[in-house]
Structure prediction request, 206 residues.
Amino acid sequence: MTADPRALVRRAAAECLCYPHAPPGPLAELLRPVRHPAAAPLRAFLRWAGARPAGELARHYVEVFDFTQRHSLHLSWWTDGDTRRRGEALLRFKAAYRAHGLEFTGEDLPDFLPAVLEFTAATGEETLLREHRPALELLRLALAEHGTPYADVLAAVCATLPGPSPRDRAAALALARSGPPREQVGLDTPPYGHLGLLPVLPVLPT
Prediction:
């Protein structure tokens, strides 16, 4: 068992963000020894999830994640949308896994956040999470605005990364514009540029 508390939080968050097939009790036990501040919002989510019947929890998951891209768990959608850049972005995720001797074989795409969290928890390599910090924060804010406790899971994930979270969407979009540089040779639209073209995350007055 890893002694890194952030790895335990990320591992538990990965399970929480997958379709709920089992009660969340074992995850609470996994987090019992964790004293990192990131564990607090995750424990709050687990208390909420543990108090609900399996069917209700499954319906809520589908409502939150399956009916709108605004809550997409695919990180490259936030950076590249449905543009031609997205294929290259997905290859970067696969290359990161292969660099650590891992081959992505899941039914989902390699940028699926639970897969990235599992990879980071297992290897300690958090470059993918750091590069996509703006996406994580935008998703956190979108879930909070929706009023779902899944926002607590994203809050936990963001709290495992350095620095404070943006307080609102305007600050998160500013982070997206000034975040970690990425290779954009031959591409005429910067990361997150597509968000301005879609009715996804309008910036509200603060």
In short: DSSP finds eleven helices and no strands in the chain.
